[in-house]
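hey can u check if this looks right to u? its 143 residues, i copy pasted from the old doc so theres a chance i mangled smth
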Amino acid sequence: MDKVKEYLDMPVDKLPRKEVREILGKFGMVFKQIEYGAASEYCDWQIPLRKEGYGVIMPSLGKYRNIAKAMALQARLEIAEGRFDDAITTMKNALALSRHLAESPIIISALVGMGTGRLMINQIEQSSREKWLFDYRHSNCII
């Protein structure tokens, strides 16, 4: 994930697209599952609160951070390739993931949700300098 961090800090027009595609290829099915989850109104994480209490261990949270970073990189690649509708869809799906994480009754999960949301908002902020983000001709226009 060190390369992902490096690519997230890099200007979009400098992204090594081939290398980025190779990294993101590992996330294909994960992104599809996130897309399905994003279409849901709510998420039941099946957290065993009654059995384990609020000290329940949630080892999957680190994976969600990595998934969010990969989704941010996916959005950057889509922007670099001029696939703006795809980039907006990726951003929306990542924000839905962060919302579902943040709605958990476990505070650490909520914090991870807020952190993953912030990661995608950073991508939106960087993209806001580009006029395409607010162009009503794109079917997924954010504004």
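Residues 2-134 form one domain.
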